[in-house]
Amino acid sequence: TVADLQPAAGPGDTSPSNEFTVSATSGGPQLRVNDFFYRVPSPAVGDTFSLLRGVLQFRNGNSKLEPRGAADVQLPPRLAGLGPSGMFLSMGALEPTFPQALTVTLSSVQPADTVVTAQTSDPAVLDVGAGQVTVPAGQSSGLLLLRGVSPGTATVTATLGADSFTAPVRVLGSSDVPSTVTFSSSAVSAAPGGTATLTVQLDLPAPPGGTTVGLSSGPLGTVPAAVVVQERALTATVDFTAGAATGAETVTATLGSSTATATVDIQPSNIANHVVISELQTGGAGSGTTGDEFVELFNPTGADVAVGGWQLEYAAASTGAYNRVLCAFPAGTVLPARSFLLCASTGHPVAAGDAAPDFTWTTGLSQGSLGGGGGHVRLVTSAGGTVVDLLGWGTAIVPEGTATPAPGGGSSLERKAYGASTSASMASGGGDADSGNGTDTNDNAADFVVRSAPQPQNAASPAEP
Asked: What is the 3-state secondary structure (H, E, C) of 372-436?
């Protein structure tokens, strides 16, 4: 029986050692089980092995059993689950549920057949047949065969020893037909001339002959006039084909009086599908302006993004160690689609008509936090969390791809709208000035241009297509 999952490491060993101990009696002597040849998957305190063997070695001050493989380890059968939940059944034949078969799952493969009992909460609605399912030797799962008796919902309970799991099953009658359609995702993206796959979903499985869902799209792309959800299925996929133009297009699905819409964001293939660092200034022109710093964020996607709990962090060019938090976004902060957020030093001046910072450098950081000759700024989902975007400039040693040149005092680095965008096209009055900042090839030098006249934008600035 497993007694301890984290025994203290012996001399010369390191934690975690992935060892555990077993004992023949409660409170009795314990033997360590090591993972030198084979790691026993997910033991738990109290688990009792029906077979546990291997090579006995003395290592790191302890005697250790070394199982050589899965054949040296055998736990008694345990029931690990019953699912998926919420499946359907027709009346009449003894058969699996649909659109997926209700399945019992064991915690491990067993050398002999394992019988799991099955019960129904309402025999007038659902019959469990033989009242059991046999998981064959060498397998870890088995299908339940059930019979629908009358329309309604009943709960199936699977039991093995002390383990028990439940799942509701709905038995369909002749009048139970789909009436509502939705899209599994309300926003997808496609490149001009490319395709995006949408999934329509019904509230009930399609009856014999299938269910036809009507489809339509605006002028920026095309979809088939209809898609058929096949018998006993809940979903069907459809391809949206984008035209040459960029923008957001709406696809509509119709089933009787039910309609659903999804947005397809048509942008060049190198447009980011996440929030990006869109503009950065490391200092103003002239003396006394080192605190004139800001970092602008842009959401190039077609959906609002909750950024509460996210952080903007800074690392020096020479170390790449992120040890300064510039801005920590409070819970509830949302960056709308194709919109901006502006974080700035308290030394960033705001003239009449300029965009005021939405957030300022976190308390305790001095002005002049961003290295003018080089540095790194990254956006993360939390302290130590996933990196959403990263910009390295000048002498930065760990940028995305290649560091972009340092902007110089009074200038900024601005992310391109498109791969072919230039400093001139991104400047005020340029052809790409109001086209957002979505290009992301994961190479800072390729994705940014130097802007001689910075133009930070904030949450109140107009959204850009």
From this structure: CCEEEEEEECCCCCCEEEEEEEECCCCCCCCCECCCCCCCEEEECCCCCCCHHHHCCCCCCCCCC
| pLDDT of the chain, 465 residues: tens digit per residue | 999 998 998 898 887 888 999 999 888 999 999 998 998 877 888 888 888 999 999 989 999 999 998 889 888 888 999 999 999 999 999 999 999 999 999 987 887 899 999 999 999 999 999 999 999 988 889 999 999 999 999 999 999 998 999 999 999 999 999 999 999 888 787 888 888 899 999 999 999 999 999 999 999 999 999 999 999 999 999 999 999 888 889 999 999 999 999 998 887 778 899 999 999 999 876 555 667 899 999 999 989 999 999 999 999 999 989 988 999 999 999 999 999 999 998 888 887 678 999 999 754 444 456 778 899 999 999 998 999 999 999 999 999 999 999 998 889 999 999 888 899 999 998 888 998 999 999 999 999 999 999 999 999 999 997
Please state, in angstroms and rounded to a whole number, the distance separating the CA atoms of residues 297 and 457: 9
